[in-house]
Amino acid sequence: MFGRGLINRAVATFIAGGAAFVAMVALGATVYYLLALVVPPLAAAAITSGLFAVIALIIALVFVRRAHGEDEEEDQEPESLGMRAVHLFQDRPLLGVAAALAGGFIFLRNPALATMVAAAFTEKSRQRRR
User: Structure pTM?
Assistant: First the structure.
């Protein structure tokens, strides 16, 4: 079905957004109640809202910078398997989370595999330099 993947992505996005909203509300309440122990409640509310406004401003500036393309992208291919994985997971963070969960499960089931994978990631490139 053509739209099934799109619908799954939309549902996953809404679930992630809802979870992020709940987490931010819980964090805000925690910060407020911790500040309310030290300062009057009105000041705690002002400090909490100011803190979250600064966080929102920082996040907005990061995304605006990315939208304008100020981030320099490397033209060269990363030389090791580890560097390729880092760049792939930077471009696609959900893929990184899924790979980490799957890798953790596999490593719990077979610890010898963990040593082989670690050796592959730390192995130096065998290409000769000129």
Answer: 0.44
